């Protein structure tokens, strides 16, 4: 088994191909551990650029929010060629995101999809408060199922705890949306080719809580 510490440059096709979905997920967790301990893995920039010139073979794809406090590559100590990253307010799933993730997994060989929410999410707060304005309205409608679920349990008081519970529920909603709206991703997960996981990044603590793991 190739370990992340074996890498000197970019992830190669051979490395990506031999990784299991579980091993690729472990690389995300290990990268986050390095981020938390402020001990990033050093690799040759020249070697990574040389590898990138020959193609890309990311081991994971992360769907996150656009929030500036959640720098996805840094959070997982990722470098050139490591990750596909899609970002949209509230880390919601839409057809373009689905198509991007289908490409990442079916055609580019990625082994993990991580849906990453974060605490103090403005999009979740806006959906909780029923904001309607321009194209924001349609985006927030995708978060409304999580709002309805959490409000049914705790009421409509927009406390930090309640909003962060909604952030976590919204991650679960997004994970389930991948499976329900994409036969490709659901099939790849079912046969063990990929894993779909979720997590919440705490913007104050700099830590990810993984909600679902393979």
Offer a concise description of the structure.
By secondary structure, the protein is an alpha/beta fold. It has ten helices and five strands.
Write the layout of secondary structure elements.
Elements: H1 13-18, H2 21-36, H3 45-53, E1 60-64, H4 72-75, E2 83-87, H5 95-107, E3 112-118, H6 122-128, H7 136-141, H8 144-154, H9 160-181, H10 183-190, E4 195-202, E5 207-212
Parallel strand pairs: 1-2, 1-3, 3-4
Antiparallel strand pairs: 4-5
Question: Any overview of this molecule?
Answer:
There is one protein chain. The chain has ten helices and five strands. By secondary structure, it is of the alpha/beta class. The chain has a single domain (4-212), classed as 3-Layer(aba) Sandwich (Beta-carbonic Anhydrase, Chain A). Strands 2-1-3-4-5 form a five-stranded mixed beta sheet, sandwiched between helices. Helix 9 packs across helix 10. The longest helix has 22 residues, at 160-181. The chain is globular.
Number of strands: 5
Give the integer mean of the pLDDT values. 94
- The low-confidence runs, each spanning 5 or more residues with pLDDT under 50, are none
Number of helices: 10
| Annotated CATH architecture | 3-Layer(aba) Sandwich
Per the CATH scheme, the topology name is: Beta-carbonic Anhydrase, Chain A
| Sheet having the most strands | 5 strands, mixed
Could you say which structural class the secondary elements and strand pairing correspond to? alpha/beta
- The CATH homologous superfamily name equals Carbonic anhydrase
Please report the distance between the alpha carbons of the first and last residues. 18 Å
Strand order of the largest sheet: 2-1-3-4-5
Cα-based radius of gyration, to the nearest Å: 17 Å
- Portion in strands: 5-15%
CATH secondary-structure class = Alpha Beta
Order of helices and strands: HHHEHEHEHHHHHEE
Overall morphology: globular
């Amino acid at each position: 088994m190739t370990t992340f510490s074996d890498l000197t440059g970019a992830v190669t096709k051979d490395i990506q191909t031999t990784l299991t979905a579980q091993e690729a997920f472990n690389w995300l967790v290990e990268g986050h551990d390095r981020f938390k301990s402020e001990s990033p893995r050093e690799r040759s920039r020249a070697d990574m650029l040389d590898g990138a010139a020959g193609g890309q073979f990311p081991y994971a794809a992360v769907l996150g929010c656009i929030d500036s406090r959640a720098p996805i590559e840094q959070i997982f100590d990722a470098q050139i060629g490591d990750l596909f990253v899609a970002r949209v307010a509230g880390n919601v799933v839409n057809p373009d995101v689905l198509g991007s993730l289908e490409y990442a997994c079916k055609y580019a060989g990625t082994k993990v999809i991580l849906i990453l929410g974060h605490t103090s999410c403005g999009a979740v707060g806006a959906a909780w408060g029923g904001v309607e304005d321009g194209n924001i309205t349609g985006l927030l409608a995708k978060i409304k199922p999580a709002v309805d679920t959490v409000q049914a349990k705790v009421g409509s008081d927009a406390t930090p705890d309640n909003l962060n519970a909604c952030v976590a529920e919204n991650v679960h909603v997004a994970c389930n949306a991948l499976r329900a709206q994409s036969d490709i991703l659901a099939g790849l997960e079912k046969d063990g080719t990929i894993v779909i996981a979720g997590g919440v990044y705490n913007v104050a603590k700099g830590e990810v809580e993984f909600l679902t793991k393979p």
